[in-house]
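Homework help board

Subject: predicted structure for assignment chain

Our instructor gave us this sequence and asked us to write out the predicted structure in token form, then describe one feature. I got the tokens but I'm not sure how to describe them. Can anyone check?
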Amino acid sequence: MASSDRLVKTPRIVIQYCTKCKWTNRAIWYTQELFQTFADPAVDIAEIALQPIVDKPGTFQVLLQVDDEVTTVFRRKFKKSQNQSYNAGTGGGDGDGDGDGSDEYDGFPDAKFLKALVKEKLNKMKQRQMGADQSQEVKVGDHLSGKGSLLNEGGVKLAGDADDNACAACKKEGA
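My token output:
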């Protein structure tokens, strides 16, 4: 079988969701949003898989796979009384098994935040595979500094703009 005919193509997003919680529509909506943003399969995301989960109630997580490496992009936090054994058994949060919970969040992300998380993790994984030490972090105000944030490449800063002209949302987050 030729490499272009592989069944599983990477980079790949896997959205695992609880069917008992009726999160199917949410998972499908995230899939559509990610496909619209990461439109070039040769560069961005080659595949998005939906995996319904029935044996672990409350599960909602987004995983990113690049070749054989898999990392957690987003995991919905469980309530303290719910599924403690499942949460502890998976190592916590970032897919590295270190239990720091850095990829666990309350509730569900809006599409823009999820896209930023995917873009950041994808860049980190690609850089790590290429041997680069530098990683691109999501920083408040990058979209105004001309550097471009993860979702707004190129920024909106004009030649005469001062750095203190941050938008209201950035000022609130940065304070």
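Reply (TA_rk): Your tokens look well-formed. For the description, you could write something like this. The first strand starts at residue 12 and ends at 18. That's the kind of observation they're looking for.
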